[in-house]
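can u do me a favor
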C-alpha cells in the first residue's frame, strides 16, 4: 500500500515537471540564424614552387613558356632502394614497364633544390622529402608575399592548408623490409611523423608560428586544388585573414612507380625518348609520366592585402567540386563530373563562360581522360571554345603529373598566365586527338594575350573533381 502511494506521488511530480518545462520552453524564442558577414574577397599575394623544371617560380615559368621539358630517363638510384641488395634493386628496375619520370633537379646551383637547407637539426629526422618540398615552396611564397608576421594576432590569423596525395611510400617500404629481416628494433621513432600527409602543413605552421587553421586535404590528384579552394573558403568565412595553401608530392620511388605500372596508368612507349613521353591531347599518348614537386600560394583577404600594400597577382573567384560516382580510376565518358565542377566554379565566380580566356586542363596524357576533359570543355564553353576565343593547354607535357601537387602547381601557372598575359603551351602535341578541330585546339606554342579570367582543372582517382577560377583585379 505504501509502495502504491509513493508511486502515485512520483507520477504526479513527473507530470508537474513536464507541464512546467513545456510552458517555460514555449515562451523561449528560437535562436536567430548565425551571423554571416558579407562575403570576403580573396586574392593571391605570394607564389612558391618546386618542380621538375627547377626550384623557384621564375625558373619554372621561364622554362615552361620556352617549351622545355622536365622529364628524363629513370635510373636505379631514383628508386631509393639503397637499403636493399644490388641484385634486388636491379631486378626491380628491370621489372618496371615505365622508365621515365619528371624529377626535381637537386643540387646547390641556382634553380636546383638543395634539401640540406630544409633539414634543420631539430626536425631533420622527421622531415621526409615531400615535406621538404612543401617547406621550400612555402618559404618562397611567404617571402614573395612579404608576409612573415611577428605579431601574435597576425600569427593567429594566418593558417596553412597543404595536402599531399601519397606521402612517403619509400619510408613505408624501408620499414616493411625491417620487419621481413627481423630488424624492427631499428625502426625510427620518426617513422609515423615522416609519412603522415598533414605533417607538411604541420611543419610549415611550426616553422613560422602560424596558429590559424591547420588543414591537409587528401583527394588524390585533385589534392592541390582542393587545398587551395578550402583555404579560400576559410578566409571567406573569417577563419583566417591569410592562408598558405597548396600541395606537395615526392613519389619517385620503387613501390609507387610499380603500383602505377600495374594499374597501366604510366607511359611505356617512350622509355628511350623520355622527353616525348608526356603527350596530353596527342593521338600517340599512352599514359602519364610520374612527377614530383610542390606548389604553394599565399591567399589573403582583399582589404587585409590592400591595407599592408601587398602585391596582388590575381583574385580567387570560384571553387567548384563534384564526384563522378562512376569508377575508381576512369571518368564517365560524358565528362559530367568535370562539367559540374567547372560549372560550379563559374557560378560562384559570377562570370559567364564567354568571359573565361584560358583553361589549364588537367589532361595527364592518358587515352580516356584527355578525351573526356576535352569534350567537357567543348560542351561547357560551346561556341566560345569552338570559335578559337578560348585558349587552353595542359602543362603536364613539360612537368609530367605531380599527383597531389599537380592542382597547386597548375593553379600557379594559371595565376601567372593572368599576371604575365601569356598562355603556356601543351608540349609534345604533334598529332591532336580527333576530337579537336581548327577552332578548338590546344595551344602548341605559348601565346601572348590578355587573360582576365582563367580556370584550372584537377581530377583524381575515386572520381573527385575540382576547378579553380582566378581573375585579374
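np, heres the sequence
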Amino acid at each position: 500500500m505504501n509502495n502504491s502511494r509513493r508511486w502515485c506521488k512520483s507520477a504526479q511530480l513527473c507530470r508537474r515537471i513536464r507541464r512546467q518545462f513545456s510552458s517555460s520552453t514555449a515562451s523561449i524564442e528560437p535562436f536567430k540564424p548565425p551571423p554571416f558577414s558579407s562575403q570576403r574577397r580573396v586574392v593571391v599575394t605570394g607564389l612558391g614552387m618546386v618542380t621538375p623544371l627547377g626550384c623557384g617560380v621564375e625558373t619554372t615559368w621561364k622554362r615552361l613558356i620556352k617549351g622545355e621539358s622536365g622529364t628524363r630517363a629513370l635510373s636505379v638510384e631514383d628508386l631509393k632502394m639503397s637499403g636493399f641488395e644490388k641484385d634486388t634493386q636491379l631486378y626491380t628496375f628491370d621489372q618496371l614497364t615505365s622508365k621515365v619520370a619528371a624529377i626535381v633537379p637537386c643540387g646547390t646551383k641556382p634553380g636546383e633544390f638543395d634539401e640540406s637547407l630544409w633539414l634543420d637539426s631539430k626536425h631533420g629526422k622527421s622531415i621526409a622529402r615531400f615535406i621538404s618540398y612543401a617547406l621550400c615552396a612555402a618559404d618562397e611564397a611567404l617571402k614573395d608575399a612579404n608576409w612573415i608576421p611577428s605579431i601574435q594576432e597576425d600569427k593567429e590569423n594566418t593558417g596553412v592548408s597543404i595536402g599531399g596525395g601519397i606521402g612517403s611510400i619509400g619510408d613505408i617500404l624501408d620499414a616493411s623490409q625491417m620487419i621481413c629481416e627481423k630488424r624492427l628494433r631499428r625502426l625510427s621513432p620518426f617513422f609515423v611523423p615522416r609519412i603522415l600527409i598533414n605533417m607538411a602543413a604541420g611543419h610549415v605552421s611550426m616553422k613560422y608560428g602560424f596558429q590559424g587553421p591547420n588543414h591537409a586535404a587528401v583527394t588524390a590528384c585533385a589534392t592541390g586544388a582542393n587545398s587551395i579552394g578550402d583555404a579560400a573558403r576559410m578566409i571567406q568565412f573569417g577563419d583566417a585573414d591569410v592562408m598558405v595553401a597548396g600541395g606537395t608530392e615526392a613519389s619517385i620511388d620503387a613501390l609507387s612507380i610499380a603500383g602505377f605500372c600495374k594499374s597501366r596508368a604510366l607511359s611505356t612507349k617512350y622509355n628511350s625518348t623520355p622527353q616525348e613521353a608526356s603527350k596530353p591531347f596527342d593521338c600517340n599518348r599512352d599514359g602519364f609520366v610520374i612527377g614530383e614537386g610542390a606548389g604553394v600560394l599565399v591567399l589573403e583577404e582583399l582589404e587585409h592585402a590592400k591595407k599592408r600594400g601587398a602585391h596582388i597577382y590575381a583574385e580567387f573567384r570560384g571553387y567548384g567540386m563534384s564526384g563522378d560516382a562512376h569508377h575508381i580510376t576512369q571518368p564517365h565518358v560524358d565528362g559530367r563530373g568535370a562539367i559540374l565542377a567547372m560549372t560550379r566554379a563559374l557560378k560562384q565566380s559570377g562570370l559567364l563562360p564567354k568571359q573565361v580566356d584560358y583553361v589549364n586542363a588537367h589532361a595527364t596524357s592518358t587515352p580516356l581522360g584527355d578525351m573526356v576533359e576535352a569534350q567537357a570543355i567543348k560542351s561547357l564553353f560551346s561556341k566560345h571554345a569552338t570559335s578559337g576565343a578560348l585558349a587552353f593547354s595542359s602543362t603536364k607535357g613539360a612537368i609530367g603529373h605531380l599527383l597531389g601537387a599537380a592542382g597547386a602547381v597548375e593553379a600557379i601557372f594559371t595565376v601567372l598566365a593572368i599576371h604575365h598575359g601569356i598562355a603556356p603551351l601543351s608540349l609534345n602535341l604533334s598529332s591532336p586527338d580527333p576530337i579537336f578541330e581548327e577552332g578548338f585546339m590546344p595551344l602548341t606554342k605559348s601565346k601572348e594575350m590578355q587573360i582576365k579570367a582563367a580556370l584550372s582543372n584537377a581530377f583524381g582517382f575515386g572520381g573527385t573533381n575540382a576547378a579553380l577560377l582566378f581573375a585579374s583585379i
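Residues 421 and 450 are 5 Å apart (CA to CA). hope that helps!!
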